[in-house]
Amino acid sequence: MWHIGIDLHRRTVVMSAVNDSGEVVSPVTIECRNTKAILNFLEPLKPFRAVVESTATYRWLYKLLSEEGTILLAHPAKLRLMIQRRAKTDRLDCQLLANLLRINQIPLSYIPPDDFQQLREITRHRARLARDGAQVKIGLRSLLARHNRDAPYRIPFGPRGIKWFRDQSFSPIDDLIRDELITRLNHFTEQINAIDQQLEELRESFPQVEALLDIHGIGLYSALVIVAELGEIERFRSAKQVGAYAGLTSKVNQSGGALLLRLHYQTRTTLVTLGTDRSRDSRGQTRCSLEKVLHPNS
Questions:
Q1: Fewer Cβ in 10 A, N or C end of the chain?
Q2: pLDDT at residue 24 above 70?
Q3: Cα separation values, 272 from 110, 130, 276, Å
Q4: Residues contacting residue 111 through CB under 8 Å, at least 6 positions apart
Q5: Are strands 253-255 and 2-8 parallel, antiparallel or unpaired?
Q6: Strands, E assignment, the chain
Q7: Are residues 156 and 186 in the same domain?
Q8: Where a domain ends, among 155, 175, 202?
């Protein structure tokens, strides 16, 4: 059996291999777009196992290689904690991955199915749009502060608030900035509304959402974020594991006075609303906890 270590970059992929008897194939560098050359390198090494670090772009390579052999995903943070080196090159990285795979010491990362991955993509994109929209609102508030003005509405970015903004006269330059900011804000609002419609259509594909919606304060978007980031819920044995994965439970990694805190940001920022184990239904009596999400049929 050949064990292949892969160091994936935006434009190139570096691969090295070692078999059970210790025979080594020297590292090669191939352009990512040359998928035929990648497959040609792997062809004489079948059957093989391959490992690649989890990156933002690993998905295409995983799909390409999963039909040729077994491909595993390495957890980059855990891998760095295991291996600390002074010398780091692409060739050394792929050789290290191959050797760790050979002795079954790769810290694995979860590979979500395609439907969960697509849900992750759309919810993360909506989060980016919301963050961009928030920055625009900060710009509009800053504009008001520079001119010592306050909006007369509690929600200054609703339809009446936007009309009020447009009716204000600042300086010629600030009027131009205001118009550009409002145009961007309208764009982000329209895009978020369009995505929300798509999320409503996806709701039926993820029935576990219904259990989350019973929790006070959780809406459809938040529920879908939780479902997307947790993936297949069967991989967790308890609600405590969900909390640990999301970064809701305390964890300290301390060395020499420095504290290292690693959190699953996207999940944590949403699941923080689940910090209480009680919610109210229309009668104010229903007890709801993460156990209901983990075991919706119990």
A1: C
A2: yes
A3: 22, 18, 9
A4: 62, 73
A5: unpaired
A6: 2-8, 12-19, 24-31, 48-53, 70-74, 253-255, 258-260
A7: yes
A8: 202
